[in-house]
Amino acid sequence: MHIMMEAAAFGSEPLHIGDNALTAVLGYAVVFCGLMVLMAIVYAMGAYFKKAEARTKAMPAPVIPESSSTEPEPEPVGDPARGSAGEIKLYNVSDRDAAMIMAIVASQMGKPLNELRFKSIKEVKKS
Q1: pLDDT tens-digit readout, 2-13
Q2: pLDDT tens, residue by residue, 46-57
Q3: Which residues lie across from 95 on neighbouring strands?
Q4: Phi and psi of 120, rounded to 5°?
Protein backbone atom coordinates (compact mmCIF):
# COMPACT_ATOMS: atom_id res chain seq x y z
CA MET A 1 0.00 0.00 0.00
CA HIS A 2 2.87 2.31 0.77
CA ILE A 3 4.36 1.71 -2.73
CA MET A 4 1.06 2.51 -4.38
CA MET A 5 0.89 5.83 -2.62
CA GLU A 6 4.36 6.81 -3.81
CA ALA A 7 3.49 5.87 -7.39
CA ALA A 8 0.33 7.91 -7.21
CA ALA A 9 2.27 10.85 -5.85
CA PHE A 10 4.44 10.97 -9.01
CA GLY A 11 1.43 10.72 -11.30
CA SER A 12 2.09 7.20 -12.64
CA GLU A 13 0.28 3.98 -12.14
CA PRO A 14 1.89 0.54 -11.94
CA LEU A 15 1.60 -1.61 -15.08
CA HIS A 16 -0.70 -4.60 -14.97
CA ILE A 17 0.49 -8.14 -15.67
CA GLY A 18 -1.02 -8.11 -19.16
CA ASP A 19 0.84 -4.92 -20.06
CA ASN A 20 4.11 -6.35 -18.76
CA ALA A 21 3.61 -9.56 -20.76
CA LEU A 22 2.83 -7.59 -23.94
CA THR A 23 5.96 -5.44 -23.48
CA ALA A 24 8.13 -8.55 -22.98
CA VAL A 25 6.68 -10.35 -26.02
CA LEU A 26 7.15 -7.30 -28.24
CA GLY A 27 10.75 -6.91 -27.02
CA TYR A 28 11.53 -10.56 -27.79
CA ALA A 29 9.87 -10.23 -31.21
CA VAL A 30 11.97 -7.20 -32.12
CA VAL A 31 15.20 -8.97 -31.12
CA PHE A 32 14.19 -12.15 -32.98
CA CYS A 33 13.36 -10.18 -36.15
CA GLY A 34 16.71 -8.39 -35.95
CA LEU A 35 18.52 -11.73 -35.68
CA MET A 36 16.59 -13.06 -38.68
CA VAL A 37 17.64 -10.03 -40.76
CA LEU A 38 21.28 -10.52 -39.76
CA MET A 39 21.05 -14.23 -40.62
CA ALA A 40 19.61 -13.40 -44.06
CA ILE A 41 22.46 -10.93 -44.70
CA VAL A 42 25.08 -13.54 -43.73
CA TYR A 43 23.50 -16.19 -45.97
CA ALA A 44 23.29 -13.75 -48.90
CA MET A 45 26.95 -12.78 -48.51
CA GLY A 46 27.96 -16.46 -48.35
CA ALA A 47 26.04 -17.26 -51.53
CA TYR A 48 27.61 -14.26 -53.30
CA PHE A 49 31.16 -15.27 -52.39
CA LYS A 50 30.54 -18.92 -53.33
CA LYS A 51 29.36 -17.84 -56.79
CA ALA A 52 32.33 -15.51 -57.18
CA GLU A 53 34.70 -18.34 -56.24
CA ALA A 54 32.99 -20.70 -58.69
CA ARG A 55 33.36 -18.11 -61.47
CA THR A 56 37.08 -17.74 -60.85
CA LYS A 57 37.54 -21.51 -60.82
CA ALA A 58 35.58 -21.86 -64.06
CA MET A 59 37.83 -19.40 -65.89
CA PRO A 60 40.25 -21.13 -68.25
CA ALA A 61 43.87 -21.25 -67.22
CA PRO A 62 46.18 -18.95 -69.16
CA VAL A 63 47.91 -20.67 -72.03
CA ILE A 64 51.67 -20.54 -71.69
CA PRO A 65 53.48 -21.46 -74.87
CA GLU A 66 56.04 -24.20 -74.55
CA SER A 67 59.60 -22.98 -74.63
CA SER A 68 61.40 -23.67 -77.82
CA SER A 69 64.85 -25.17 -77.67
CA THR A 70 66.16 -22.54 -80.12
CA GLU A 71 66.49 -19.93 -77.37
CA PRO A 72 70.09 -19.51 -76.28
CA GLU A 73 71.01 -20.38 -72.72
CA PRO A 74 72.12 -17.24 -70.88
CA GLU A 75 75.65 -17.18 -69.59
CA PRO A 76 76.37 -16.53 -65.91
CA VAL A 77 78.19 -13.27 -65.32
CA GLY A 78 81.01 -13.39 -62.71
CA ASP A 79 80.57 -14.06 -59.01
CA PRO A 80 77.20 -13.30 -57.42
CA ALA A 81 77.02 -10.17 -55.30
CA ARG A 82 77.18 -10.43 -51.53
CA GLY A 83 73.75 -11.27 -50.09
CA SER A 84 72.37 -12.51 -53.42
CA ALA A 85 70.80 -15.91 -53.91
CA GLY A 86 72.90 -16.93 -56.90
CA GLU A 87 72.30 -17.00 -60.64
CA ILE A 88 69.20 -15.99 -62.51
CA LYS A 89 68.43 -16.92 -66.09
CA LEU A 90 66.88 -14.20 -68.24
CA TYR A 91 65.00 -15.13 -71.40
CA ASN A 92 64.20 -12.18 -73.73
CA VAL A 93 64.19 -9.78 -70.76
CA SER A 94 66.57 -6.88 -70.24
CA ASP A 95 68.45 -6.48 -66.99
CA ARG A 96 66.47 -3.31 -66.23
CA ASP A 97 63.11 -5.08 -66.71
CA ALA A 98 64.25 -8.05 -64.60
CA ALA A 99 65.31 -5.71 -61.79
CA MET A 100 61.90 -3.98 -61.89
CA ILE A 101 60.07 -7.32 -61.83
CA MET A 102 62.09 -8.54 -58.86
CA ALA A 103 61.52 -5.27 -56.98
CA ILE A 104 57.76 -5.43 -57.61
CA VAL A 105 57.54 -9.05 -56.44
CA ALA A 106 59.55 -8.28 -53.29
CA SER A 107 57.34 -5.26 -52.57
CA GLN A 108 54.11 -7.20 -53.05
CA MET A 109 55.34 -10.03 -50.83
CA GLY A 110 56.61 -7.61 -48.20
CA LYS A 111 60.02 -9.27 -48.02
CA PRO A 112 63.51 -7.92 -48.61
CA LEU A 113 64.89 -8.71 -52.03
CA ASN A 114 67.88 -10.60 -50.61
CA GLU A 115 65.52 -13.13 -48.95
CA LEU A 116 63.95 -14.13 -52.29
CA ARG A 117 65.44 -16.43 -54.89
CA PHE A 118 64.60 -15.96 -58.53
CA LYS A 119 65.64 -18.84 -60.80
CA SER A 120 64.59 -17.39 -64.15
CA ILE A 121 62.53 -14.65 -65.73
CA LYS A 122 61.00 -15.21 -69.13
CA GLU A 123 58.87 -12.92 -71.26
CA VAL A 124 55.74 -14.66 -72.47
CA LYS A 125 54.18 -13.16 -75.58
CA LYS A 126 50.57 -13.71 -76.55
CA SER A 127 50.06 -14.81 -80.11
Answers
A1: 555 555 555 567
A2: 999 999 888 887
A3: none
A4: -160, 155
Domain extents in the chain? 14-58, 89-122
Q: Which residues face 96 on adjacent strands?
A: none
Asked whether the whole model's pTM tops 0.85, one would answer no
Phi first, then psi, for residue 117 (nearest 5°) are -125, 120
Identity of the residue numbered 10: F
As a whole number of angstroms, the distance between CA 5 and CA 13 comes to 10
Cα-Cα-Cα-Cα dihedral sign, residues 96, 101, 103, 104:
positive
Tens digit of each residue's pLDDT (9 = 90 or more) over 20-76 = 899 999 999 999 999 999 999 999 999 999 998 888 877 776 666 665 556 666 665
